[in-house]
Specification:
Blueprint: H1 2-17, H2 41-51, H3 53-63, E1 69-74, H4 81-95, E2 126-128, E3 137-141, E4 160-164, H5 165-172, E5 177-178, E6 182-186, E7 194-200, E8 203-204, E9 210-211, E10 218-220, E11 236-242, H6 246-251, E12 256-263, E13 278-280, H7 283-292, E14 299-302, H8 309-317, E15 323-328, H9 331-343, E16 349-353, H10 366-388, H11 395-408, H12 416-428, E17 451-457, H13 476-496, E18 497-507, H14 516-525, E19 529-531, E20 546-548, E21 554-556, E22 567-569, E23 580-587
Parallel strand pairs: 4-7, 6-10, 14-15, 14-17, 15-16, 17-18
Antiparallel strand pairs: 1-3, 1-13, 2-3, 4-6, 5-12, 7-11, 8-9, 11-12, 18-23, 19-23, 20-21, 22-23
Pfam family, one: Methyltr_RsmB-F
Keywords: Methyltransferase, RNA-binding, S-adenosyl-L-methionine, Transferase
Organism: Populus alba x Populus x berolinensis
Length: 592
Amino acid sequence: MKKARDLHLLLKTIRRSSTTTTPKMDPSDRYSFSPILRWDPEVENYFIKAYGADHFSIISKALTRPSSYSCVRVNTLKSTSDAVIEKLLEIIKEKGFDGDCHGKEGSGPNENVGSPLEESLKNGPIVKCQIPGLEYVLFVKGTGPHMIDYGYVPGAPPKEVIVGRKCAEAVLRGAQVFVPGVMACSAHVEKGDTVAVSAAIEQRNPNGGWAFGITRGTVLQGLQTDPYYFERNGLYIGQGTATMSRAGLFRASEGIAVDMNNRVFRLPSFYDVLEGEIFLQNLPSIVTAHALDPQKGERILDMCAAPGGKTTAIAILMKDEGELVALDRSHNKVQDIQKLAAEMSLTCITTYKLDVLKAIRQRNEADDININQSSNSLRFHEEKASSSTAEGFNLDKTCEDNVSNAIENGGAYVSKADIRKAKRRMRNGSGRNQCVGGRVENSKGFYPDSFDRVLLDAPCSALGLRPRLFTGEVTIDSLKKHATYQRRMFDQAVKLVRPGGVIVYSTCTINPGENEALVRYALDTYKFLSLASQNPRIGGPGLVGSFESANGRTEEWLRPGEEEFVQRFDPSSSLDTIGFFIAKFSVGSKDA
C-alpha cells in the first residue's frame, strides 16, 4: 500500500508540475480552452446519484483534458527500462521537446521550464514506476494547459482553421492536424501562415440527431455570422503553421494540414518510435494484465483483444511460453494484433476472427478440430521448409515428408493439391495472404472449460477515455444496451474458463451500470464465482449501493465488503489516468 501511495504522490507531482498558472494574455474568453461536457439530462442525473454532484462535475472536467503524462510499457523480452529511457531521452532532445509550449513571443512563459520536479523526477522528464512488478512501466511528463496568445486584435481576428471534434481530441493527445480533419478555414490562408485551431462540436439538429452543421470547405470571415461562432468559445486547442494554402487543404486527400507547434497541451510524440521495444498504453490497462496473473505454460483467452495492447502485455508476463488465444470479430483488427505481436517478436499468440457470442463449440465438431490441426501443422512445416530453402534443402521432399509426419501424428488427410500449393509457396515466397498480418484464421469456437484464464476487456461506452469533448449522444438506453451485451459476453467467458481458473473483466468507462452492476450480475447468477484480490492494487474502491430509476427499476451495484476487491480508476484522482474498472473472479466447482 505504501508503494501505491507513493505512486499517487508521484503522479500528483507530475500533474502539478505540468500545469501552468500563466495569466491570460487575451482579454477575450473566446480564445481559450475551457470546454464543458454537456450530458443528456437523464444520464447526468444518473451519474450525479452515483458520484454526487460536486464529484461528477470534477470528473466531467477531467474528461475534457488529456493525462499530464504518457505511459510507456517496455517490452522486457527485447530491452530494459534503462536502455529505453536512454533512447527516449535522445529522441526527446532531437525533437526539441524541452517542456515549454514553443509559442510565439508574448504567449506567456511556462513555469515548468528549468524548474526541477520532486526528488524522483529531478533527473529528467522520464521516470520509472516504483510499484513492485511494474518497474518496466515508464512515465513521460507532458505540460499544460498553456495560455496561448492567438494574436487577437478587436476587429482583426486571427486566421483560423476549424477541425472536427475527433481530430481535436487527437490533437490534444499530441497528434498533428491532418487534411481529413479540417472542416473550415479562413479566407486567404497561404502555406506558412500561422493559424488558430478550434474544434467544432456536434450540435443537435432539427431531426433530433447530432451533426457539425458545417459544410466542409466553408470560408470563415471571423465574424459572428460564421457557423457556430459562439459555440466555439473556449474550444481553441492551439496554434500552428499551415502546410498548404486554403485551396490545397480542400483539394488534398491526405497529409498534414497544420503543423501544431503551439499547443494547449504538449506531450512528446512517440509514434513509430522504438517499434517492438515499447508500447504506449494507459496505466490501468497494464494493471489489468497483472490482475489476470498469467503463468508460463497456461492456455489463456483474450476475448476482445484488439488492438493487442493487453494481449502482448499478457504474453510478455507469460515469458512468451504457453498459448494465448486472441479474438476479435473484425478481420482488420485481427491483423492489427498479428502485426503488433510480430513487432514484439511474440510467438505464443494465436489470433482468430470470431464473434465472442459464438465462442462455445459443441463436442460433435471434433472432426473440424483434426482438420484445423492438420492445416496448422502443414502451415508450420511450410514456413519451416521455406526458411530452409536458402540452405539448399529439396523443397518437394521436405514438403512431402512434413505432410506425411503431420498425418502420422493424427492430422487429417492432406490432398496432393494442397501439397502442390505448399510447394509453390515455398518456391515463390509468401504471397500477400501468407505474409505476417495478411492471413486471418476463422474459428468455430472452443470447448467449454478449455482455458485456464480468460480476459474480457469488454466493448463499452468508453466514457472513461480522455480527452473527450462531446457526450451528447450518450443516453440511458444506449448505456443499457452496452450492459446487456456485456452480460452476454460474460456468460461466454464463464463457460470457457475451467473450474479453478480466473476471469478478469475490465472496461474503460465510468458507468457503474457496465461495471459494478456487471459484478452484481455475475455473483448473483453464478454462485461458483467469487471476487478475488488483485495485485498490484492502485485503483480506488468500487461503488456500493444501487440506483432506482424513474420507472421503479433498481440497478444493484456492490454490497459492503466487495468494494475493496475491485479497482476503479477515477480520471479526476491524483493518478490522472483514464476512467477504468477492473474486477477479478475466481472460478470454483461448476458442479456445486
